[in-house]
Amino acid sequence: MNTRIAPPGFAARAAAAGGSVIREALALTARPEVISFAGGLPASELLDVEGIRAAYDHVLTESPHRVLQYSTTEGDPRLREAVAARLSARQLPSRAEDLLVTTGSQQALALLATALLEPGDTVVVENPTYLAALQCFTYAGARVVPVPTDDQGIDVEALARIMAEERPKLLYLVPTFQNPTGHTLPLERRRSVARIAAERGLWIAEDDPYGELRFRGEHVPWIASLDDARDRTVLLGSLSKILSPGMRLGWLRAPAALRGVCTLAKQALDLHTSTVDQAAAAHYLREHDLDARLVRASYTYRERCDAMLDALAHTLPSGSTWSRPDGGMFIWVRLPDGYDAIALLSEAIAHDVAYVPGAPFFAGQADPATLRMSFAGHGPAQIEQGMKRLAQIFRYRERE
Ligand code: PMP
Fold it and tell me: In which domain of life is the source organism classified (predicted)?
């Protein structure tokens, strides 16, 4: 599905990353009448516009010359302290020095790829997995080896088998409310992953932008907190889904040597993350009870998730299956065999509704009958309306 678009003279990796027919189709969903379940955006109405504006006002009034200047690559110590305190409160003892602030957690992925991967190195991923991580590894010239998943996440027996055959350097996982599936890896499997990684000398990238958006069940400990994995896990976090994606603030928590290499790589990439954005976020985290806001956000997301789950049974052709997430933003759908979610997307868009076909989330052989739906961006009434539009397409197919 990638169209090879790099003109002659461009680097081969630019062509390998390619363009996407899906991206082109989804560009058509900007029309206001389209109810889009495609994006991974947090709900606009949950953004604390007033609180964030006040935080910028405060830092620009109190210390304008500091926050408008260059600053250190490692990041604002106040922000690092605030993030370390949040991690420590969730049973992952952390110090400010353990963290490198990044320009979104997406940059942390790019830094890891720079720090760890030679062209031809092998990265093991859940199948399906986060699309932009796949792109990042492709840019690094890595070989991506997929591991099958079930409704609890990565299949650890398959992982052990693949580890015996391949010599991967890095395992990339989104263990909690995964993008795209919404699945959460249970603690037992996290322990198995940690053990396998320790036995094989493997780095683990534990990408967790959604973990704080839990609306059911209990927090599952991070792989980074498990004994076997402590020295070999890089935890990636982000303010994107819990405060604002536009501020582009993320972090990585890594053992000292790897963090040092990532810091140097970041210096070459962008010197440092925006000083004023970090200062405003640090002030916000000091002055506001973000956890209380997240509790309120979790009510909103649970209501939206439940609205979508309720509607799915009436929307999808019989024989379809879907995930039932305990948090995050995504539901993963599998239509019956023979359905092609990419082919149906343009019809959906013509009916003013959109989703993301599942195919690009797969490394290797894609399952064309899959798709990802985000419930985060619309209230229950709009979700119901959007699902009725989808039903016209999917159910109509069923009668054909
Ligand atoms: N990892 C995953 C799994 C994601 O879903 C996303 C964003 N959609 C990111 C990383 C990047 O997030 P950000 O750069 O905004 O922190």
Answer: Bacteria
